[in-house]
Amino acid sequence: MSNARGCGTTSTKPTFMSISERDLNQALLWLCVFGLVLSLLRGIRSPNIWSAMHYQLDYSMGFLKRAFAGQVLSLMGVERGSYSEVFFISFAITFISVAAFVLLIIRSRLHCATGGLFFILLSVNSYGLVYYFHTVGYLDHILMVLFIASIFLFSRPSPWNSLIGSGLFASGILVHEIMAVVFAPVLIVFLLVQERMRLALLLSAIIVAFTAATNFLAVKPDVTPEELNQLLQSKASFPIRTDFAYILYMDGAEHFRAHIGRVLSAEFLWAFLPSLILFCSISFILMKASLTAISLARVRDDGIAKPRIGFVLARYAIPIACFSPLLLNFVAWDAHRWNALTVNVSLGCLCMIRIAKPSAPPPCPTKATVVVGLMFMFMNLTANYGMFDNYVAEGAPFIQHIDYVRGVIEGTRDFPQVPPR
């Protein structure tokens, strides 16, 4: 497996016992498309009630946290209380986020060499992508769109692009506070690799200050949780989750105190560690590829010269960026969700480095990495971790999906079907 430099790589004539690199790349590319479709079919389902509840919030009761998305939809005239509209909006956002990630990969040219295609193949066949499709309707997908849009703007240095990119990232923090934990470290890595040290430091300070300010200024509803549930139910055409309202009455410190005991319990570790191994093993491979990409970029730019400060700091920041979603286990539920996010964030980090330094050749996996990666890819394809709402990922030939489509055609099933609470 050669270390190809880009799409212009020439291929040798295949023999009886060999295959040209061009044909191998095409085969891997089709396997990536197949893996993407397979992960979609395994994890996709209707948006659950918990995710639909986020769109019912707005600023009519004050500066509530996580109400920005609902406020924007309200200004757009969307009927947020209708599950049908929430359904179509959620799927539209999910597919837009996937399209944005595909554009990110294309922009990084990671798909133009065999080594890069291997890392893409490893990611799209992971359970992390299955979980991503499973969380349709969650605010994570809006955050992904805003993050990638800000990266595209920061990749073209100019004052206006930096200002608009910062505004998009700040709006992501208003959508959900995990934006600062999950995506900010990757953005800082991107700026460090670009050697934009002052902007990286300034943006880090702005993100910390803005996140702290939004959490400090966020108000709690001036009614009881029971009264808030009645108000939300009066606006929604579907049965709401009555436990959702309680997140609006807790700040970060209260979330930490409520979850730290759970994180340290034996029951949590028994369920968390296998998930951590399954997801983060792939994240570790992608993180190593990012570190290799940094080394290749430094050698290409500096030869044997002393490494510049941006590359040095980036090497320390990359592990933090790839595994930062794990910190959310201390303040929230959904352990598998945070573990799965490490896969998507790690692939995004690798793409960021390729965009920041397009002159560097893509990293090429070693034989041991390929063997280990294929092993974990097989484990991801055969594993069946439980998801939200007692949902289990479906396997081929996807009988449940076929039965549902047949029921919709025959008129015996509703579309969209409101999931149970």
Task: Walk me through the structure.
The chain is mainly α. It has one domain (22-220, 231-385, 394-410). Helices cover 65% and strands 0% of the residues. The chain has 18 helices and no strands. The protein has helices at residues 21-43, 49-54, 68-75, 83-108, 114-124, 127-134, 140-154, 159-175, 179-182, 184-193, 197-217, 225-235, 252-263, 266-302, 309-323, 335-356, 367-382, 399-410. It is globular and about 60 Å long. The termini are far apart.
List the helices and strands and how they pair.
Elements: H1 21-43, H2 49-54, H3 68-75, H4 83-108, H5 114-124, H6 127-134, H7 140-154, H8 159-175, H9 179-182, H10 184-193, H11 197-217, H12 225-235, H13 252-263, H14 266-302, H15 309-323, H16 335-356, H17 367-382, H18 399-410
Helix pairs in contact: 1-5, 1-6, 4-7, 4-16, 6-16, 7-8, 8-11, 10-11, 10-15, 10-16, 14-15, 14-16, 14-17, 15-16
